[in-house]
């Protein structure tokens, strides 16, 4: 099994969520607001919170979660070592299946870390 193309996956998911934003605006706004509140800097900074979210996404076997949180981590300047540490915790908590999704998270990190041509 090869890892998904995470750039394409996140774009596709975003496009597929658009109708829900129209048909369920309250629910989707509530979800967005909850995400903003949960990820806002507090006792933990935004990068640490994204590392936690990535680990949970890996343990939950959610490719979309992996894509969106790795994309955010790259934007926040997370190093490969920081991502790998979070993936180690995910593997510990989720066992073999998490190891398989951790491999996908590494592929996502590599994909999102490639500089975009100007």
Automatic annotation (TrEMBL):
Protein name as annotated: Alkylhydroperoxidase
Superkingdom of source: Bacteria
Keywords: Oxidoreductase, Peroxidase
Keyword Oxidoreductase among UniProt keywords: yes
Species annotation: Ottowia oryzae
Pfam family, one: CMD
Domain Carboxymuconolactone decarboxylase-like: 25-107
Any one Gene Ontology molecular-function term assigned to this protein's record: peroxiredoxin activity
């Amino acid at each position: 099994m090869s890892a998904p193309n995470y750039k394409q996956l996140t774009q596709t998911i975003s496009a597929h969520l658009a109708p829900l934003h129209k048909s369920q605006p309250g629910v989707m706004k509530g979800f967005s607001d909850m995400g903003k509140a949960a990820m806002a800097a507090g006792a933990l900074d935004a990068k640490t919170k994204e590392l936690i979210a990535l680990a949970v996404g890996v343990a939950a076997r959610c490719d979309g979660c992996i894509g969106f949180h790795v994309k955010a981590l790259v934007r926040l300047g997370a190093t490969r070592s920081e991502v790998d540490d979070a993936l180690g915790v995910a593997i510990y908590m989720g066992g073999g299946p998490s190891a398989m999704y951790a491999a996908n998270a590494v592929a996502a990190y590599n994909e999102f870390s490639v500089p975009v041509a100007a």
